[in-house]
Known about the structure:
- Helix content is about 45%, strand content about 15%.
- It is built from 5 helices and 5 strands, in the order E-H-E-H-E-H-E-H-E-H.
Amino acid sequence: MSTKKILVVDDNPVIVKGLALKLKSAGYEVLEAEDASSAFKVVREHDPDLLILDINFPADINMTWDGFTVMQWLERLWQDTQKPKPVIIITGEESPKYEDRAKAAGAVAFFRKPVDNAELLKVVARTLDAKDSASKPAA
């Protein structure tokens, strides 16, 4: 079985490195991106199995990208080529509207920062196990 690739997207390098360390120690290959543009490039080049995605990013060149915009782009990217990859949202936002919006957009889980790493690892493992089970042909 190949190592699962997880893309962590957050504009805070401390959060990215912290999550990367936890995920690597659990046996996952970790890809990193600090903004939406970098995330798009990594997705195209490395086809991660799961994304952990922040909601808010600093404004890009004359554009404001957020986690919801990234999820919409991913949906369009994957609609004709492959089945969608699971997305876990992480955010520092306190408003419940973000969680509702994330779930409506297709996120499999929602975590507020600071993230409970043990719970995140459980959700990652459960999500990837469910994805593997769904892709296996019935006996």
